[in-house]
Amino acid sequence: MLLDLSKLSLICGTLLAGISASTVKTPPKSSQTESDTVVPNVMGGSFSNFVNVQSIAYYGLLGETDYRCTGTLIAPYVVITAAHCIYDTKATNSTGWSNVRIGVGSVQPLPKNTNSYTVSSIVIYPDFVYASPFKDDVALIYLNECVSPDIATPIDIEAPDMSESQYIAAGFGQVSQTDRSPSNVKEIIVSQGNQDICKMFFSDAEIGTKVICVAQTSGNGSCFGDSGGPLYSVDYENLFGVISSLVSIDGQQCNTGDTVAIYMLPSGYFSWIKKNVPCLGTSCDYKSICNVPSSSSSALNISIPTGSSDPSAPIYNTNNRVAIPCSGSSFQISFTADQTSDIYFIITNTNTISGPANITGIMGLDTGDWFIGDYYADNTDNLPSDQTDTVDLFIRFDTNGIYIGYDDEEIIYTLSDEFDMA
């Protein structure tokens, strides 16, 4: 059974289906030493004016300030950052997502900035491997709610003109090699350079399309602390790059001329980003996007494991659960499925199937038996003779209850007075 989850949004909690765990690459440990590759932060430069960096985001962990990254708001509830930040903080699955906090709307780091947002899900570029020097070092973070435009605004993604001589790099974190405490956002004017070093790690085809390398100077540029930060156009209007890492050939890390700062170019991943984000930058319509928040993926394919077709023992794989955003009073999850087996699901207010408030359901595509909660509907008379076709299913929630059905036809529902998902 293959499900195509084209839109995800529902009541506050978690949706668990009878699915197989998605595979996640387990990369080898880097063969380079810590002095060869470091995650960057801005040294030198000047403190930023928030008017210029309204899309910048702070990536941190709940209750911690020792590790942080930077990101950029590219949609009302989507932040782009470096994928290795996600691995560094063990946030590659839903267990780790709950520890991540995103700060926006300020040049101050968390917790000084009170605009703190939780995370519903994170998607890492599928070809990323956690080994330095990082390639395809891009990830998308989905917040549990939209960021109001009076707090922060998303930025447009553009491809840089490689003939341009200057860009602006910005980030949170330490301002020297010895002081590792986070600081307010700093920025610095940078330019391309040390292309001979860049070509030691990236091909000519990658340079200028997927990556750009910026030269370091002693005491100025990127250094320890936070990857994922933006590389802006000089007018701050466009996002050109995402800070990934530093590569040094002499082991001197930041304070050397033999170091390059590596930036991923979001424009080189634009088709993947567009597939996973419903709108980008200044083109976003907040009214249509934020009333029904979407999930981490516009096309998440999941499969039903063996045994889920047994009504007495359905299999729910908690490793592939989907966190549901909480915003407003009406939500819907829509997806496409073939009709060769029933679909089992649980809606819960925890990350497990044993929470105090669970609602179970069955979409009887194969048997015709539909359940939600304690309610049953017999739909066998409407089973198609050819079950190779696909149907468009939905789970809809509003203040009156939860409704399930397919092809815009409601099959069964349970009223809101039958459950409590607070």
From TrEMBL:
Query: Which InterPro entries does the record cross-reference, listed alphabetically?
Result: CLIP_Serine_Protease, Peptidase_S1_PA, Peptidase_S1_PA_chymotrypsin, Peptidase_S1A, Trypsin_dom, TRYPSIN_HIS, TRYPSIN_SER
Q: Which UniProt keywords apply?
A: Disulfide bond, Hydrolase, Protease, Serine protease, Signal
**Highest taxon, organism lineage:** Eukaryota
Record keyword Protease present: yes
Q: GO biological process annotations for this chain's record? A: proteolysis
Keyword Protease carried by entry: yes
Q: Where is the signal peptide?
A: 1-21
Query: Per its UniProt record, what Pfam families does this chain match?
Result: Trypsin
Every copy of the Peptidase S1 domain together lies at 42-278
Q: Which GO terms describe its molecular function?
A: serine-type endopeptidase activity
Name the UniProt record assigns to this protein:
Peptidase S1 domain-containing protein
